[in-house]
Amino acid sequence: MLALKVGIQLYSVRQALQANPFQTLEKVAEAGYKYVEAANHNALTDDGVGFDLSAKEMKKALDELGLQIVGCHVNPLKMDRLPAVLDYHQELGNKQIGCDIEFYPYQDMDYLLRRCELFNKVGEMCKERGMRYYYHNHYQEFQKFGDKTVYEIIMENTDPELVFIEMDTYWITRAGHDPLKLMEKYQDRLVLLHQKDFPKESPQPIVMYDGVIERNKDITYPMFEDTKDPQCFTEIGTGVLPIQDIINTALKAPNLDYIILEQDHTNLDEIESIKKSMQGFKKYSGVKWE
């Protein structure tokens, strides 16, 4: 039977990593996770995964803990920095990098098409090295220019051989769209899947555009952070998202091997939170941990 390997986005334990990176990685491994996706938000000065370590040192640490890196967000994404970043990740053994937060607000169609051109160039640089580039969504990609969403425009104006996607099912749902339909539509480009969960009781409606923020606003990053209520996240498998249906649909995607758990906010200790998500996620079929 087909099964997705389960990983963890290290953003879920970012505060612990900042305080003690090696001890935190050790705890992630002890919790039972084998696969990790990193998030480097200091890519202007750090070529790697946000630890300010050489690729050799980072690889040694991961190998000793039995951890495998399966992706990394790189922010900001700058063409002059990209060769050094890709060199690092090749040495580390990571075959794909992505980006998420730095390209909104989308401003106008010309701006968006220029971003698509940039994504193609990044994808070409990755492909030349035997790597992949992927784009991660939030809810802003489901704003519209005319009758098309930003997400549709990105998909239509980027090369499917160069630009892949990491779908975040939580943010697709909070944009008022059906992640199952989008996963089916773009299944050939889907290389990573982010899974969060939405609590049964929440201070906000599940759709952000239902009174939290205006659908046509130019949403800046500070605005995104200000409207992202920490109480709208819960440990994965304890909320209301149709996770088994998501897994069943994901299994049809030919290039998808990993489903990545991510916790933006928690009321628990970060390590306890990812342990609870692991336990909650073990009730689902179609996934494996080894």
UniProtKB/TrEMBL annotation:
Signal peptide stretch: none
InterPro entries: IolE/XylAMocC-like (IPR050312), Xyl_isomerase-like_sf (IPR036237), Xyl_isomerase-like_TIM-brl (IPR013022)
Domain Xylose isomerase-like TIM barrel: from-to ranges: 25-283
Alphabetized Gene3D superfamilies for the sequence: Divalent-metal-dependent TIM barrel enzymes
Short name of any one Pfam family annotated for the protein: AP_endonuc_2
SUPFAM superfamilies, per database record: Xylose isomerase-like
Protein's name according to its UniProt entry: Xylose isomerase-like TIM barrel domain-containing protein
